[in-house]
Amino acid sequence: MSGEDHRDSNALHVEAARRLDAVQSRYTTKRRLLVDVFEQADHPLSLPEVIAADSSLAQSSVYRNLAALEEAGVVRRIVTGDDFARFELAEELSGHHHHHLICRTCRTVADFTLPTAVERSLAATFRDVSDAHGFSVQDHQVDLLGACADCQDAARIGGDT
Amino acid sequence: MSGEDHRDSNALHVEAARRLDAVQSRYTTKRRLLVDVFEQADHPLSLPEVIAADSSLAQSSVYRNLAALEEAGVVRRIVTGDDFARFELAEELSGHHHHHLICRTCRTVADFTLPTAVERSLAATFRDVSDAHGFSVQDHQVDLLGACADCQDAARIGGDT
DNA sequence: TTTACTGCAAAGGGTTTGCAACATG
DNA sequence: CATGTTGCAAACCCTTTGCAGTAAA
After folding, report:
1. What pLDDT is attached to residue A5?
2. What is the CATH T-level fold of the domain B97-161, as seen in this structure?
3. Domain ranges of chain A
């Protein structure tokens, strides 16, 4: 199953259904729609972005479904300091381990990946750190904070000294 | 011992005053108290923790002062997904570049450091990544998510079946 | 049929803000 | 004295929840 093209969204839905079933939840039409939205996104989506992508979804239902999908391990919630939380497909489902470029100006979040060698050495270091602290690591999170290309341009034009 | 504390603390306050002055803000008694609280903390503090450390501060004033201190670059705001935001001294003032161990159970945040060699190689990698994306990096954030020692113990006792 | 899900509206809760009194430079 | 700061309380806004109707198994 690994190494396959991400075009196979059927496998994604099958796995999502399996995970929801494992927590006694149903894979309804609305939830399938949500998974479709996240599959097509190339960055974590805020709630307004999710609703913009499919306005057939009521706000409260989206929140409730995202909570259900998160509990099932289908999506992951990301908190960046923006007004809104953001959501993306769980990495086991997207098959795409990555990190985030967070723009402090427009608050958008873009994905990036680290070279395998760096990831591997980081993982080893994290193991040492967690051992030393008696901390059990489930996940790591590497974010870069700064200004995206668009906001740098805007600053040069609008905020010029 | 206490002589050293006074000297360190004094340098800290001088720098904090300078930074506040740079944004037309005053270094009031309350703000000095806040800086003292953060200087003594060994981990990022939530608002309840700040108020617990010094209850002479009104909640809204603490929020307002933290916003002022953040704008001046004296403290840094951290968002972990906990109900509360957390704050710590800016690294230029604490002189202590570090990262966070975030416990998903009790939501506490502990500090840890990476070996210099790892930091250096990370910085180089981040430079490559940001160049490739046209992203201007101001800061990076490396967090480990998992279970702290206490919560692992609690799980062994309470959740053992 | 049974149980979970949906949508609307209202409540929740951390954070922000209006305003009058106060302190700082 | 002029201006920034403080504290109280109310407003704010993202998110959660109660409830009645609907869809899934």
Report:
1. 46
2. Dna Ligase; domain 1 (3.30.1490)
3. 1-96, 97-161
